[in-house]
Amino acid sequence: MASITPKERSGNFQKDLWQQPAGRQNCSLVHTRGSISNTHFFKLSGKRDSRLDITKPGRQSNYLENHDPIRSEPEIKLGNGTGPDDIPTMKNLEPISRILAVNIRGIECNGRLEQIRVLLTKHHASVAVLSETETSHSIAETTSIEGFKAFCPPNSVTGPPGKEVGVILMISDKLAASARPRPDINGDDSVQTIWMEIGIHNLIIGGIYRRARSSAELEKTEFIQLSNQIMKAASTGKKVLLLGDTNIDHNNPKHKKASEAEALLSDLEAANMRRLPCSLPTWKSYGRHKVCPCTKSVACDCPKSHLTSTIDNAYLSISECASLHVLEDAISDHFPILVNLDIKAKPKENTKTRTIYRRDISRLKVSDFENALEAKDWSPLYNTDDPNEAVALLIKLVKEALDTVAPLQAIKFRPDKPKINLKRDTLDTMASRDKARKSGNLEQFKLLRNTANKLIKRDKIQGVMKRLQKNPGPQQVWREAKSVLGRGRGMTLPECTTNTDPKETAKHQNDFFINKIARLTASFPSEINLQVASEEDAPEDDAKEIPEPKPKAKKNFSFTFATAGSVTRIIKKLKNTTAMGVDEIPIQVWKKGVVVLAGPIARVCNISLSTGIYPDIFKEAIIHPIFKGSGKDPRDPGSYRPVSILPSLSKILETVVRDALLDWLKLLGYIPDSQFGFLPGRSGTMALACAQTDWIEAKSSGKIVGILAFDFSAAFDTIACLTLLSKLEAANVMGTPLKWIKSYMTDRFQRVLWNNNLSEPRPLTHGVPQGSILGPLLFLVMIADMQRYVIGDSPNANLMAYADDSTIYAHAKNMDLLRVDLERLSDRMISYCQGTGLVLNKDKTQLLVSTSKEFQINVGSSLISSSPVLKLLGVEFDRNFTTTPSLKKLATAANTRAAMMYRLGFSMPPHLLTTFANGLLMGKIMAFSPVNIPTRINMDDHYQGYIGVTEDINKAIKATARTITKSKLSDKVHSEVLLQKSGLKCLNEAVASITAVTVWKAKNAMDPLGQKIFREKSILQCTRSTNSKDIELLVQGYPTLSTNIMARMWNEVPGLQNATTLGAAKSLAKKWAKDIPR
User: Fold this and answer.
1) Which of 195, 253, 352, 412 is the most buried (most CB within 10 A)?
2) Model pTM?
3) What's the CA gap between 727 and 712, in Å, rounded?
């Protein structure tokens, strides 16, 4: 019998089906069945070939696909899976390996349950999430499919009358025996979710149907509820899988819920979860629609197309491995998704104790260590002129002294137990508890058990406080919060990525890092031919616009040799970290022995500087791969960021060179004012404030402003050594200093540490050392001529750079002139990158213009279209250059973190909760706040578009204050009293205080921001007595402009103009901020 094509098999039945109204299609489907068997009917109704025929004439262009809120038909054809392989067979898979999610468009349609049963049987699914069931609780509870048990959301979940239940979870009878509902995760939320715990697999499965609500406020509330539920599920410490119809498309940046999609991914990252990647659409419209960009009022002959979107999603704990496949068995206008979860029966935990050897540096007495060091013979170090020998002697003598006063001790631990430093009384109580249990004394056992639990909690809290005292930054607070919530202080690395042998994973990851840079630099010309970018390299039509480089100084750069005093100051300023490089000596050792060691260290530094040789041991880095999060696959080597750990002693030598070189570059004026990264006194806030002022000044004068933000691929890792050396020569760095920097840059190696396995070293051919002190400054030297080369003396263009984040912007009278200017500037940028050894990532280039009209430019061979939002340094600007889009996301993030604080409140004392709140919540809110959040200085300031969003952030702050003070909303405690008791500030007060100090610093240093606000061009420090006068607003009519607000504060904060110290300025700003609108 000849084979029949799918289209011939469906025939006119499918054509008629597609012509039916979308609302009636599912129910009328069953009436056409007649005597067709169930299985055969399912194949007919499930495989809609008109949906799969995507190679027809009239398919929209890629341009339309990338710009429509709902995408038109994709290039790729649907099949059994999203990858090249077929769906895995059932061989060697556990019963819960396959989880299905399908939108059924009404479970009460005649024959729908049979269709679902056949679908479950066909794909051997043991769990299914049925979304858009649109039924009542009473009917949902009686839903029956042979071999499966139905579970419904709690009664708190709401919907239209008779459609209260939008999602049902079907679990096979075998698994249902170990399944239990988790209504505690739902709480009283109205969002359509159902959560079940599968005990034998330590897994929580969630099903979701996110309805499109008529009320925007209700939708916003349910998004927050969903984020909170995800955090609750993740905080249980179990594996979590959430899947279903979310009605948000993570693949389409033009989707109407794109901001919510991004916010959800951020919340998933906080919960140590990720989205399973899916490149194919899961929804396809019944009819064809006009999706061309033609004006609606003008008739056109453009063909219509089906709309598609990927709105069915699955989210999984990052520790687990799974694949997602889009199936072609469509019951409704959605394609089902099948998750193949790689979950085996829970292996027997490794309870064997392991032994590691560590020195207890924390208990090392300074006096004992100094005496041990003084007993050593240091004369050989002062008699050698070989830097490698000198470093080896120094490390040897320090280790010998440590062996006397802090010898290596064997520490036994069990990998399956949390690492908590328990005090002696806690350990004694635990031993007594165990004895009481063995003796059968139940009352004594209960008493000792409760006492031991309290002591363990005490030790845990004290451990958190100790770690926060050593490193009080927001990142450490975030790690500790995750630890308290049961998600560990760091993600456990998988045994393998794309390799198979766990012992080879370290080597495999090291090869990936090295090969990635090799691929990026493969297209570079020979280093011998790489020259400093100059006017000769620029396009011919632009050569006249590029000024001559600054004349060289009369003298050359020379090192400032180290002294015991300078080394002491450097060591005291180093951050306390326990990470150790190949020398196996942490920074705390150098700090505790600084009185004795400052002289020998200065000697080692001076030998290196005088000979121009950088010690070999300092050139080897140990790479710790850190998971990037943001929905990345933990089995993908590209999902890890390399964090380089260098010997702690090398940081001292690098600081000596960095400080001397930075002073020299400042003297020459080598680094332009457009660079704001890695420089003392400069910041991201300063960069954004200066750029925003330029944009609005041009816009206020009637010009059209265009902004191009560029992204470089692995910018620090692709730097060519010879190119850098030639640029240093241009800055009069020659002779021995140049020889030293060449030695510093060359013959470097790296190893990768992966689950206690250390790879063999591999050589590095490009890049400035990651994790180093000197490397960032050398990178700034490398790109210091970018401003001169790309912008030249163009009066209508400028550049803003924060390290490797480079943004150019221009203004013109009309869009045609603007297009010409931006394309000319982008050509210069491309030419500059080619001559400097930078790899431009054109796919991540952003374009924003100050008009809603469609605007496109060519950047090299790529066509870039303007977007409604531009993201710079994490802050989003709209076409009016306000930060409203950024604040909306910040409000969502603030609510998420307030929910985390609520859960922390069950296990943390109030004083520690305040520390967590300042790091987790306020730290997030205050980032770039002088630019991101406009301050209301008086009651007349009503900033349109900001008030509602800032009030949402204030609500999150007050909710956290209630968590700290253990109060409830019903207690009706006044906000001012609540915040005072909790140790927090309201949003306006916190932002105002920081902004006032920022403007004082700008005036005091007369940095680029100070020059912008005060219209002065002096880089010399100004005194209060000669500059105490009011200033005018920079741009009239723009009250939310950050520099306008700073100017107003300079005029209105009492005493700020006369403050002579930073402490005085902070005190005045703090006092004033308490009296402004709250």
Assistant:
1) 195
2) 0.76
3) 20
